[in-house]
Design a protein that fits this description.
Order of helices and strands: HHEEHEHHEEEHEHEEEHEHE
Shape: globular
Strand content: 15-25%
Structural class: alpha+beta
Length: about 375
């Protein structure tokens, strides 16, 4: 079965020849990383078998966050950390999207647009959470994950937030819970979010680049109560450190085309899309984030600099409910980090050293 790396190895030269001069710099870096991953260009790690004493040389991965083969362990580690940070009570999944008419602006100015999307949506939630009619706490707790793709690799920027059902109030130094199935009013949240984004674009001097009609209609915001946070965290962990498409969805790559599988929302039926290889790579690369951009962000008491310790919030909630409300105790998978195993005798491989690319005989760098 073909992999993303196979597709780029075969078709990247033609793609670079066509778009090289016009290509964003981060797209070129992603291509270089995918092509070099687990090859001599990344160097190698040397292991010695504790059983038979044989040495094994394993090419290192590129570590690029857009490479489909490098991020699995990071996702598992992130999920475990977030599961350990849950507080008792109801959680909500709140998703902020942008109108289709403005997606072209987002694609061409990703750094500014994504930052504004985070700021406008998070500030809108804080505004309504502080309102005594709904929650009445000025320090809510939530984190958000930016996604930029749909199931067919189309460009669809949106943020998923996992939000605790309540907020801490500095005024009375107490926890204010939300209603079990209601966080804040959806329509009001949508209006405030839209207005804050519009104001951010005005302050950045970019209003002229956006059709004013975009700000006349509501922007889609979805609020869903999800019970304990565990299910949402497990769902998001598949996206935090993964890319728009994984190798297992590649069905075929032949004769200059790529076929991959997908499923529509709320459907179990597997469908297939066939694209020209160049179009496939273009769709893949458009989801490359700007250098240094943080796609996961923490707010309120979930942020380490909030001034309200997470344990203080957790204890307050437990005392409020007489310790009857607890964090979900669903079993977690046990994942021990094990050393690789010798393919000859089954002995444990012990790390000895790393060989840099220029130290590998016969290696020829890009320069």
């Amino acid at each position: 079965m073909a992999t993303i790396q196979d597709i780029f190895r075969e078709h990247a030269p033609a793609y670079l020849e066509t778009y090289g001069e016009r290509m964003p710099r981060n797209h070129r870096r992603v291509i270089d990383s995918i092509l070099s991953c687990r090859t001599s260009a990344c160097g190698m790690a040397v292991y010695e078998c504790a059983g038979c004493g044989k040495y094994h040389h394993i090419f290192r991965s590129c570590g690029n966050r857009h490479c489909p083969t490098c991020q699995n362990q990071k996702a598992l580690d992130w999920m475990d950390r977030q599961l350990g940070r849950q507080v008792p009570g109801t959680y909500f999944m709140i998703t902020f999207t942008v109108p289709e008419e403005i997606r072209g602006f987002f694609r061409s100015r990703q750094g500014v647009a994504y930052d504004a999307l985070f700021k406008a949506s998070s500030e809108a939630m804080k505004t309504l959470a502080a309102d005594a009619r709904f929650i009445g706490g000025d320090v809510p707790g939530f984190f958000g994950v930016l996604h930029t793709w749909g199931r067919t690799l189309n460009y669809h920027p949106h943020i998923h937030y996992v939000v605790t059902g309540g907020a801490w109030s500095r005024a009375d130094n107490a926890w204010h819970p939300s209603r079990p199935c209601f966080y804040v009013p959806n329509k009001a949240l949508s209006r405030i979010y839209r207005a804050k984004f519009r104001d951010l674009m005005r302050d950045a001097g970019m209003s002229r680049l956006i059709d004013p009609a975009v700000f006349r209609d509501g922007w889609n915001v979805n609020i869903q109560p999800v019970g304990a946070a565990e299910q949402s965290i497990r769902y998001l962990s598949h996206y935090v450190f993964k890319v728009a498409i994984s190798d297992h969805r590649i069905v075929d790559a032949a004769e200059g085309t790529v076929t991959f599988s997908y499923k529509k929302t709320k459907s179990r039926r597997t469908r297939y899309m066939k694209l020209d290889a160049g179009d496939f790579m273009s769709r893949f690369l458009q989801h490359s984030l700007p250098p240094g951009f943080m796609k996961v962000r923490y707010y309120g008491f979930m942020h380490p600099c909030s001034g309200v310790p997470l344990e203080k919030v957790r204890t307050s909630i437990e005392m409020m409910h007489g310790f009857d409300v607890v964090v979900s105790e669903a079993p977690r998978e046990v994942r021990e980090k094990t050393r690789p195993i010798c393919p000859d005798c089954g002995g444990e491989l012990m790390y000895r050293c790393t060989v840099l690319p220029h130290q590998i005989p016969g290696y020829r760098g890009s320069g």
